[in-house]
Q: What sequence folds into this?
């Protein structure tokens, strides 16, 4: 059994070795991460329930959870006097090397400590001193999401060592870059250590630091064999953060501007890829192999899928359950078991998401409630529905038929923004600002087909106050009031839409 576990961990180390731990802000090739540790195997991970927001628990509280949550009974134990004894799970021993800090300081490399990170770096001391506390906060957020990692046999505090490198020659002279560490453009991790290069932007320096720390956290958990898209997607997801003036860090955020998130550029990459006709399907992301992560674009796709599933109100609970299946080959099996029933809905919403992705994208309000419409007939010759201004696509309740014509009319006034003053609009929209080529506030329509006709919800038609149009394909009619997908939160009000067959 022990040899089998060792082989499994060797194969894991080999697979992770070719996957980069840190995608860059440019088209340079990110380099792979590596894992060499061989922790004992176990059947189930130690995972605690996830909360909607990261708990404000202290690191001491998280440590207490470690001791309380790492005892698991062995399934189907043999009959013996010790059969009821719990099986203790330990993380690998901390084998980080110790360094001569005074000698390093003479070379210009200083040490900065926090509870969860020892950082050696030759960058500006004032900047360097701010970084370890970021990882202390990241540790709490990661523990909150994945559950606490097991203790080691010495019951020592979990801590990483990071090397933030400005002058590579100095670090090599000091012996801080192992001779067997493969070359890297941005970052690389191994067990409880990571190496990263100095970055141009303050934001991306922290992003990459959190990215590598996330890898260290996730790969120290026993028998981790999750697919590379998930490992890199999670590292990118936690790395996407916001730093407040008081030093508090919020992780797993949606970027709101390229300036605030300088250097990452993940949204720009996705938009460029879609414009160039290289949009990736969910299945193609799930099947990405480690070698493909030599391209920065694949970090963006892994991040975008992780963000999509973890923030969508209908999918996120299931997605977060996957953190309990990082062991063995359970991850892929559980993913398809959880999402196969919604495969068609996932494809539809994914297409809309990546095509419309922008800074500040509001996943909560963009989520679609898929409802099959009903045909209009003599008993129901017309139908009225309410369309809210602060939501994305909404079902009309009407099934329209291919080749038939329908008449739509809309009434009502609604508010599109509050600052600098409220923008009051009617269904024809406001022509002094445009979104997706149409005035904001314009009532627009699309059709979600029942079959495989090829009609896409990306094909839209302007309705305004009213229009008559011939239906290209049978399906449910969906409606929305046009606005940027980042601007739905401050909209108020609704319109009433009447739908009926056009007079022949």
A:
């Amino acid at each position: 059994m022990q040899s089998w576990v060792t082989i499994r961990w060797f194969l894991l180390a080999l697979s992770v070795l070719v996957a980069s731990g840190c995608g860059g802000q440019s088209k340079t090739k990110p380099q792979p991460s590596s894992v060499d540790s061989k922790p004992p195997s176990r059947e189930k991970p130690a995972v605690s329930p996830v909360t909607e927001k990261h708990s404000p628990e202290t690191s001491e509280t998280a440590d207490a959870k470690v001791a309380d949550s790492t005892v698991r009974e062995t399934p189907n134990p043999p009959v013996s006097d010790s059969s009821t004894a719990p099986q203790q799970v330990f993380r690998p021993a901390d084998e980080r090397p110790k360094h001569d800090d005074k000698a390093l300081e003479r070379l210009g490399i200083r040490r900065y400590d926090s509870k969860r990170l020892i950082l050696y770096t030759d960058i500006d001391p004032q900047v360097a001193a701010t970084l370890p506390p970021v990882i202390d906060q990241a540790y709490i957020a990661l523990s909150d999401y994945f559950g606490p990692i097991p203790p080691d046999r010495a019951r020592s505090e979990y801590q990483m060592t990071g090397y933030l490198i400005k002058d590579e020659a100095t670090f090599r002279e000091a012996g801080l870059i192992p001779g067997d560490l493969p070359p890297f453009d941005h970052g690389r991790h191994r067990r409880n250590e990571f190496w990263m290069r100095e970055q141009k932007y303050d934001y991306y320096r922290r992003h990459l630091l959190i990215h590598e720390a996330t890898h260290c956290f996730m790969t120290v958990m026993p028998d981790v064999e999750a697919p590379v898209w998930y490992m890199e997607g999670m590292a990118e997801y936690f790395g996407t953060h916001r730093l407040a003036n008081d030093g508090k860090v919020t992780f797993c955020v949606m970027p709101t501007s390229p300036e605030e998130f300088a250097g990452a550029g993940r949204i720009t990459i996705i938009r460029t890829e879609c414009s160039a006709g290289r949009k990736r399907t969910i299945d193609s992301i799930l099947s990405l192999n480690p070698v493909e992560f030599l391209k920065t674009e694949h970090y963006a796709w892994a991040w975008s899928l992780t963000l999509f599933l973890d923030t969508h109100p209908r999918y996120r609970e299931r997605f977060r359950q996957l953190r309990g299946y990082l062991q063995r080959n359970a991850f892929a099996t559980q993913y398809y078991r959880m999402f196969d029933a919604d495969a068609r809905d996932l494809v539809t919403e994914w297409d809309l998401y990546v095509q419309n992705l922008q800074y500040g994208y509001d996943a909560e309000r963009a989520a679609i409630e898929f409802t099959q419409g009903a045909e209009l007939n003599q008993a129901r010759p017309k139908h009225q529905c309410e369309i809210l201004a602060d939501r994305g696509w909404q079902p009309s309740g009407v099934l329209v038929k291919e080749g038939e014509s329908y008449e739509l009319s809309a009434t009502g006034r609604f508010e599109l923004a509050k600052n600098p003053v409220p923008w009051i609009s009617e269904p024809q929209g406001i022509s002094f600002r445009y979104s997706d080529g149409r005035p904001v506030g314009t009532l627009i329509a699309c059709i979600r087909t029942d079959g495989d006709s090829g009609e896409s919800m990306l094909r839209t038609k302007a309705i305004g106050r009213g229009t008559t149009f011939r239906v290209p394909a049978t399906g449910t009619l969906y409606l929305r009031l046009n606005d940027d997908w980042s601007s739905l939160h401050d909209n108020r009000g609704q319109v009433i839409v009447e739908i009926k067959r056009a007079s022949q």
Observations:
- The longest strand covers residues 492-501.
- Confidence is low (pLDDT under 50) at residues 1-21, 23-82.
- The chain has two domains: 2-72+89-356, 368-501.
